[in-house]
Amino acid sequence: MGDENVSASSEADMAESWVTRWYTPLVAIGVALLIVLVLALAMVEFLVANAPEVTGPAAWTKPLARVDEALTDGDVAQALAWWREARVAALRSGQWEAMIEVGDASRRLGGRSGFRHDGDALARHAYLTALARARGLHSVDGVLRAAIAFDELGDRDRVAHAMHIAERQARRDPRAREHVRAVADRWMTQSVRGQHPTSGGQP
Question: What confidence tens digit (pLDDT) does each residue in 62-82 have?
């Protein structure tokens, strides 16, 4: 009887040991998979949080078109609301072209009675952002476009600054150097005459 009890106990221990050996790896695998899943989700969240937001041109060009429509209707308040929407989209886009267009719209708004803000100041801020982006992207065209915008504002100091940046960026590109030189020569010549080199030559 005692032998039977010992035998039964031994079989039970063996069975429990076998189940433990079979079950433990599955638990370990499950825990490992859970850890990998958590890490993967954390990595995805990190990448999404740090990735630049992709904004297409329509995000700012459409509200800018509505700015002009509202101005045509004489609704300055609505034009300002559309301008704000365009500005937010332009800032998110990371593109210098977007900020140039927002700056141009700021000047159009500033010329209307009832506009409570300094249109030129808002435009200047947009153009500075465009210049910084163009410089960061090594876009000679973008830097020159910002120089043109500053010239139209009559901001000679910032024109000169932008032209200096363009010259440095075009140093290794003969065609770009020619373009910069042509714009610089035209600006210097017409500035002496009291004209804006990019505004049709009107004094």
Answer: 999 999 999 999 898 899 999
Tally of domains within the chain: 2
Positive/negative CA dihedral, 79, 84, 89, 90: positive
Tokens, residue 73: 């209707």
Q: Closest by alpha carbon to 165, among 153, 186, 183, 191? A: 183
What residue numbers bound the domain in which 79 lies?
58-192
d(CA 194, CA 184): 15
Residue 172, token pair as written in the block: 């290794």
Whether residues 79 and 117 share a domain: the answer is yes
Under 8 Å between Cβ of 162 and 146: yes
DSSP letter string, 17-39: HHHHHHHHHHHHHHHHHHHHHHH
Same domain, 42 and 101: no
Each residue's pLDDT tens digit, 98-144:
999 999 999 999 887 667 678 899 999 999 999 999 999 999 999 99
Same domain, yes or no: 20 and 74: no
Give per-residue pLDDT as tens, 159-181.
999 999 999 999 888 888 888 88
Same domain? For 31 and 78 the reply is no
Residues 47 and 63 in one domain: no
